[in-house]
């Protein structure tokens, strides 16, 4: 059995043909061209699906799609997704079905990263876990009894907007000090640039002082690997903030396995060890039993595999 997985972002439309047991059969990516408007984006998605199915003999069961924003409980409609100009409340499912003839279900992209991990990644061994995605922003997905927990209207799991310091920096949250303000890629880079400017003899300043817009978390990781103490300290502070957030997640949900994915998570031990140490320090003792932070190496592929898995599970 095969299905189509789509990861719709503001920059690229990633598509995959996925076998239920074997995983990826074929993948592709095309620019979203989001600035051209929603109808154009829907047409682009249909074009990508058509290209993916060229010369394919077997018909897919349908389309599963991940996208940013809050998705309705029936998995058809998204509300005001970020980075997609002109989108308000859109029935994405019907637009894709109209253009391709294939049934379509949609879900928040971070929820699908969690589902992809549950079906194809480190989450296959876990019935309960919390996925934290550290990318451009911070997203989350909650797996309970091997299924996505979606709350009462389908919008649960906005873990990046949990507030850990009301006097902290701004991000996309409605108030200061959300988790995303410390661990979203552009916010972490902004924080790092402020500290690097104060250390003009540091190799990171020498490399980036003419254009700090080019500084990314991966540069901090590379510098930390070269024993750059400033980079190590920046990642440690970010990891500690993640640890405080995890304390909240675990105390609320009583789920002890935390799966971390995304580009920022590639900082590895420099980020995740401070996160673990901080969480272990402040968790109530009974919650320490079986507590673990696990890195998901699937990265962005997790959302694509999760999208295809959603189609398998909802469209049979």
From TrEMBL:
Matches recorded under PANTHER family: BIFUNCTIONAL UDP-N-ACETYLGLUCOSAMINE 2-EPIMERASE_N-ACETYLMANNOSAMINE KINASE, ROK (REPRESSOR, ORF, KINASE) FAMILY
Family: Belongs to the ROK (NagC/XylR) family.
Protein name: ROK family protein
């Amino acid at each position: 059995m095969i299905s189509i997985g789509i990861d719709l972002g503001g920059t690229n439309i990633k598509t995959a043909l996925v076998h239920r047991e074997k995983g990826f059969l074929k993948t592709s990516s095309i620019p979203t061209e989001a600035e051209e408007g929603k109808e154009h984006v829907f047409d682009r998605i249909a074009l990508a699906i058509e290209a993916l199915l060229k010369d394919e003999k077997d018909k897919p069961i349908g389309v599963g799609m991940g996208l940013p924003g809050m998705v309705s409980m029936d998995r058809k409609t998204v509300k005001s997704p970020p980075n997609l100009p002109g989108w308000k409340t859109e029935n994405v499912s019907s637009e894709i079905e109209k253009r391709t003839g294939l049934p379509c279900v949609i879900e928040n992209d971070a929820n699908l990263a969690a589902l992809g991990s549950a079906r194809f990644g480190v989450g296959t061994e876990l019935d309960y876990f919390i996925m934290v995605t550290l990318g451009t922003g911070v997203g989350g997905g909650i797996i309970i009894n091997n299924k996505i927990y979606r709350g009462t209207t389908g919008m649960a799991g906005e873990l990046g907007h949990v507030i850990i310091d009301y006097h902290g920096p701004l991000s996309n949250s409605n108030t200061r000090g959300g988790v995303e303000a410390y661990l979203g890629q552009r916010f972490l880079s902004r924080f790092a640039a402020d500290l690097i400017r104060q250390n003009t003899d540091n190799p990171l300043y020498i490399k980036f002082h003419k254009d700090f817009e080019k500084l990314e978390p991966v540069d901090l990781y590379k510098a930390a690997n070269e024993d750059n103490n400033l980079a190590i300290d920046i990642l440690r502070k970010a990891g500690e903030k993640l640890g405080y957030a995890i304390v909240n997640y675990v105390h609320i949900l009583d789920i002890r396995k935390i799966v971390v994915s995304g580009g920022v998570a590639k900082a590895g031990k420099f980020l995740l060890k401070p996160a673990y140490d901080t969480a272990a320090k402040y968790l109530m003792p009974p919650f320490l039993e079986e507590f673990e932070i696990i890195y998901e190496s699937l990265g962005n592929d997790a959302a694509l595999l999760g999208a295809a898995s959603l189609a398998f599970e909802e469209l049979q």
